[in-house]
Specification:
Elements: E1 2-8, H1 20-30, H2 38-49, E2 54-57, H3 64-77, E3 84-87, H4 91-108, E4 112-114, H5 121-128, E5 132-135, H6 137-146, H7 148-159, E6 163-166, H8 174-193, E7 199-204, H9 209-212, E8 218-221, E9 229-234, H10 240-256, E10 261-265, H11 269-279, H12 290-296, E11 298-300, H13 301-311, H14 315-325, E12 341-345, H15 346-373, H16 379-386, H17 392-401, H18 411-432, E13 437-441, H19 446-454, H20 459-472, H21 487-492, E14 494-496, H22 500-503, H23 507-523, E15 533-535, E16 542-546, H24 552-555, H25 558-564, E17 568-572, E18 586-590, H26 594-601, E19 612-617, H27 621-632, E20 642-644, H28 645-653, H29 670-681, H30 685-694, H31 698-709, E21 724-726, E22 732-734, H32 736-739, E23 748-750, E24 756-760, H33 764-769, E25 775-778, H34 780-785, E26 787-794, E27 797-802, H35 806-812, H36 817-822, H37 824-829, H38 831-838, H39 848-853, E28 867-879, E29 885-887, E30 897-906, H40 911-920, E31 929-932, E32 947-950, H41 955-967
Parallel strand pairs: 1-20, 2-7, 2-8, 3-5, 3-6, 4-5, 6-7, 9-19, 10-17, 10-18, 16-17, 18-19, 21-24
Antiparallel strand pairs: 1-9, 11-14, 12-13, 15-16, 21-22, 23-24, 25-28, 26-27, 26-28, 28-29, 28-30, 30-32, 31-32
Helix pairs in contact: 1-3, 2-3, 3-4, 5-7, 6-7, 7-8, 8-29, 12-23, 15-16, 15-17, 15-18, 17-20, 19-20, 29-30, 29-31
Length: 968
């Protein structure tokens, strides 16, 4: 059974009531024969002549970008304003809109700059000095997360902007929107200090009350320039293969019915890539123009070299290409052949060795704390017993520090010795490495080892740390002849034809070579392979894959290629939802959230004279029945279902009545606000003023001050803060709980990026076809032992108790529950006196947790005592099918953890009980949380409970508050 309806659209009216200079600029961009749509004309007048803010509500293919860009570029060209910043929610949208901005800049004689994460200070200044700036909020947040120098520079540069444009704003919701709101407040206040009042323009397809608060702009409503669309809803499919087959069959039907451009969208990148690999032809050659073959094609080097010999290409050109080919991947020091020399920045060496040593010292501290809590009277001896099975680096650090430890019974003295040793090594290296770079020699790299020895490491430890660094330090400019590589390995490497344009230096030689390659591709003498463009089955119809899991270089140009092809299928994911400007005749898609579905829906019906079709596979039977009943009730006298586009949009995504519900998000968080308070505080006097203006809530200041005094490190970012695992070639692997199920420890290395937990040498396609080998779960015991803080709410105020392993001590109180309950009246009367009485018994391991927790003890008697909110490193375990459990480590045996994460443990709760509880406070299925239910299966009789982690900073704090209020 299927459900089919016709969604009709009334196209927007045009208007000639536009001032001549704005109309002239518009027509210079679009062509003299075009007039702007009515809503564009309204925006031209509102933004260009009245100088007001705007809140533009219109769907896809409505010209939202031009509606705002035309008046802003005109004002810039006339000197009315000096600087504009366009903010886009995704890099894909930014790159697509960059073409629009560059064209307008060429017409008006303006320059366009772009803010990107990783820019140097000089490049950031250059970008901020352009009259037109493009950025994503994530890239802006990269600088806020970096250091104070970039904070101050960026904030001042943003305060000089006259007008901001937030495009596709409906993608900002929950904590992401809260972050953006704080960013706006900071900019507005600083601009006010400079006697400026920046204007904010918000462009969206689906308005919300929260978005409206970002601007005081007048609402302008527009329509899409789209034709009618026939929509078919398919009944749900239970199994993966059924879903795949239904969607693939729908593509086949669309092609048979005459569709030339078909878009197939999956919710998961893995499923999209699997379908692409499954449908692409093995023998057929897609009908692709030679220019696209050169742009996207590749060939194994041994085949190209053989063709070059037959073709008579000079050996000098072949050697030149071969030299560059060896640089295709990122290489590290370990890849240099014996005796090769290179230079390494001493700043890089110093930062990486500091991270290694500080990590190892933290491991030793954790062992000492654990021993102390278990009543071991000699921490030094306890550490030595616990070193068995730990990484070699940890043991070597201990062997180096141990002789300097005088008092093995004193924990503070032990920690002071460890801190002093690390500080001495760091200080010595600063004195040794006075130059900006160090020349090193492969493969022993004695220059590094000798510096470490001179700084206070023993020879064996120095060699071990040097070996660690050779796996993580990327090679700077180097000669290809210095790399270890056998000819057979080189012959298997791929040469991308697009590289020839920069591999061959001499212009005439380069042009001649590319021309001969083009002719060889045309007549079939060169076999082209295109990783992301193939043939659909046995036909010659091109099929293109485009997903967010592909690296930026891999994705670049693929949508443009799909647009240029006369007939093609594009397989993709939500990566195509946002504003990327291309048109399809048919859309085949899985059901997703309402806003996302309407964005996908907007990809069709944009080509005049072509019947547009949408086929959607519904997720569950309940949704399908509701959809069927509501649509059937609106059938006309002829039995056909018809509705206008606006009515269809409301049916799909209305916040109350929509059949495809929106993603569940957290609206705000005390922690998120406190983190922004601390970001401001880094700016000195101006930061104090900002905080007074932005946060009139004393609770935010109080929590921020407690966090600062505890010296806790917190990750923050616009979208997410959970570190990922990076794959080879720069492709995004994803969350560790997904990626690590397929990648074993011996293929992992620690990452120096705060956005990554680890780096892997696995390619994305290899990951795709690797089967799950393990379950990745949180190690709750080790995570509790690694805790750095315990948070709780009492009488509406946040409390914080800092200290390594503090949460583990709190959990141990539940082992003493009956004894403590008996003492509850005395505890409530005189907590201080009670603790004083316990001091003489401090050697008793049953007493020590009570003393350690101290001020947090009243939490134990509150209704929400078993909701445990903490912060620290999160440890992971891998469990195979036989139940064997191992730690997640890198290839050198060093533990890999999620550093400085906030977590929430529902102590003593089974899954069903926890789900009921979270559902009662509308916190089940939040986008910003990760729910580790699998951990329960490995906890057995000593169950601690499910663990929740932040996907975006602040989510656990908000859920904890909800649970506290519910328990009260």
């Amino acid at each position: 059974m299927t459900l089919t309806m016709l969604v009709e659209n009334q196209p927007p009216e045009t208007s000639g009531e536009v001032s001549p200079p704005l109309l002239e600029l518009f027509q210079e961009y679009t062509g003299d024969e075009y007039l702007p749509f009515k809503h564009q004309a309204e925006a031209f007048h509102l933004v260009g002549h009245e100088g007001k803010e705007s809140f533009l509500v219109a769907g896809t293919a409505s010209g939202k970008t031009l509606a705002i860009a035309i008046p802003l570029f005109w004002k810039l060209s006339q000197g009315i304003i000096k600087k504009v910043l366009f903010i886009y929610p995704t890099v894909a949208l930014l790159e697509d809109q960059r073409k629009v901005m560059d064209h307008l800049a060429e017409i008006t004689g303006l320059d366009v700059g772009q803010i990107q994460g990783g820019m140097s200070k000089s490049k950031l200044i250059a970008a901020l000095n352009k009259p037109v700036i493009l950025a994503t909020p994530d890239e802006i947040y990269w600088f806020f997360r970096k250091n104070v120098k970039y904070n101050s520079l960026l904030i001042y540069g943003l305060a000089l902007v006259d007008e901001f444009v937030l495009d596709e704003a409906h993608l900002f919701n929950g904590l992401m929107l809260r972050n953006l709101s704080h960013l706006k407040s900071r900019i507005q206040l600083l601009a006010k200090k400079l006697d400026k009042i920046p204007r904010w323009h918000v462009l969206t397809a689906t308005p919300t009350e929260n978005l409206k608060r970002l601007t005081t702009g007048e609402e302008v409503h527009g329509k899409s320039k789209c034709g009618d669309v026939e929509v078919t809803f398919l009944e749900p499919a239970k199994r993966y293969d059924e879903r795949r087959d239904k969607l693939v069959d729908a593509v086949e039907t669309a092609l048979q019915n005459g569709s030339d451009k078909v878009l197939l969208v999956f919710n998961s990148a893995d499923l999209a890539h699997r379908v692409f690999e499954g449908v692409k032809g093995r023998r057929s050659r897609p009908d692709i123009p030679p220019d696209l073959k050169i742009r996207f094609g590749r060939i194994r080097w041994r085949h190209f070299k053989a063709w070059s010999k037959v073709e008579g290409i000079s050996s000098e050109v072949v050697e030149e290409i071969e030299g560059w080919l060896k640089r295709e991947e990122i290489f590290h020091l370990k890849d240099l052949e014996d005796g090769a020399k290179t230079s390494v920045p001493t700043e890089t060496l110093a930062s990486k060795v500091s991270r290694i040593l500080e990590n190892q010292v933290w491991v030793l501290k954790r062992m000492a704390y654990s021993a102390e809590r278990e009543g071991d009277s000699n921490p030094v001896e306890a550490i030595e017993r616990r070193l068995a099975g730990k990484s070699k680096t940890t043991r070597l650090v201990w062997d180096t520090v141990r002789p300097a430890i005088n008092d093995g019974n004193n924990l503070e003295s032990l920690f002071a010795n460890l801190k002093t040793w690390v500080g001495d090594v760091q200080g010595s290296l600063e004195r040794i490495w006075v130059e900006d770079s160090l020349e090193v020699t492969a493969q022993s790299f004695n220059e590094i080892t000798e510096a470490f020895q001179a700084a206070g490491m023993g020879r064996v430890l120095a060699e071990n740390v040097t070996n660690n660094l050779t796996y993580s330090i990327e090679l700077p400019e180097y000669s290809a002849s210095n790399l270890k590589m056998v000819p057979s390995e080189l012959g298997q490497r791929y040469l991308a034809f697009s590289w020839l344009g920069w591999m061959v230096n001499e212009e005439n030689t380069r042009a001649n070579l590319i021309d001969r390659v083009r002719k060889a591709l045309e007549d079939g003498r060169l076999e082209v392979e295109m990783r992301h463009i193939s043939a659909w089955g046995d036909s010659d119809l091109p099929v293109v894959i485009y997903t967010g899991k592909m690296s930026k270089p891999e994705r670049r140009g693929l949508l443009e290629a799909f647009e240029k092809l006369s007939r093609a299928v594009l397989i993709s994911t939500p990566a195509v939802e946002v504003g990327v400007d291309f048109a399809a005749d048919a859309l085949i898609t899985e059901q997703c959230d309402g806003n996302g579905f309407l964005q996908r829906f907007g990809r069709v019906g944009r080509r005049s004279g072509v019947q547009a079709n949408v086929v959607a596979l519904v997720k569950d039977g309940e949704t399908y029945v509701e959809l069927f009943n509501r649509c059937r009730s609106g059938a006309g006298d002829d039995g056909k279902i018809k509705m206008m586009r606006e009515e269809f949009s409301s049916l799909i995504s209305d916040p109350v009545d929509g059949v495809f519900p929106a993603k569940l998000c957290t609206e705000g968080s005390d922690l998120l606000d406190a983190i922004h308070y601390m970001v401001n505080a880094q700016l000195g006097e101006i930061g104090i003023w900002l905080n007074q203006a932005m946060f009139d809530n004393d609770a935010v200041k109080e929590l921020a001050e407690k966090l600062r005094e505890a010296d806790l490190s917190f990750a923050y970012g616009l979208r997410g803060t959970m570190p990922g695992v990076a794959l080879r070639g720069g492709a995004g692997g994803g969350e560790p709980f997904y990626v690590l199920r397929k990648i074993y420890n011996d293929r992992l290395m620690a990452s120096s990026s705060p956005f990554e937990m680890a780096q892997s040498d696995m390619w994305h396609m290899e990951l795709l076809w690797t089967k799950y080998q393990w379950d990745i779960v949180i190690d709750p015991k080790a995570t509790l032992e690694s805790s750095q803080a315990l948070f709780w709410l009492q009488d509406g105020r946040w409390h914080l108790r800092a200290g390594y392993g503090i949460a583990a001590d709190y959990v141990r109180l539940f082992q003493l529950e009956s004894n403590l309950r008996a003492l509850e009246p005395e505890l409530r009367r005189d907590l201080g006196g009670f603790l004083e009485k316990l001091e003489p018994h401090a050697s008793n391991p049953k007493v020590r947790p009570i003393l350690r927790v101290g001020e947090a003890l009243p939490l134990f008697f509150l209704p929400h005592a078993k909701f445990i909110l903490g912060q620290g490193d999160v440890h992971l375990l891998r469990q195979d099918q036989e139940g064997i459990i191992e730690s997640v480590e890198d290839r050198l045996g060093n533990p890999l953890v999620l550093e400085n994460q906030v977590w929430l443990i529902l102590y003593g709760h089974r899954k069903e009980e926890a789900e009921r509880l979270l559902n009662a406070v509308s916190a089940l299925g939040l986008e910003e949380l990760y729910y580790d239910w699998q951990t329960l299966e490995g906890q057995g009789g000593k169950m601690i409970g499910p663990v929740l982690l932040d996907r975006a900073a602040g989510a656990c704090f908000d859920v904890y508050r909800r649970l506290v209020e519910h328990a009260g």
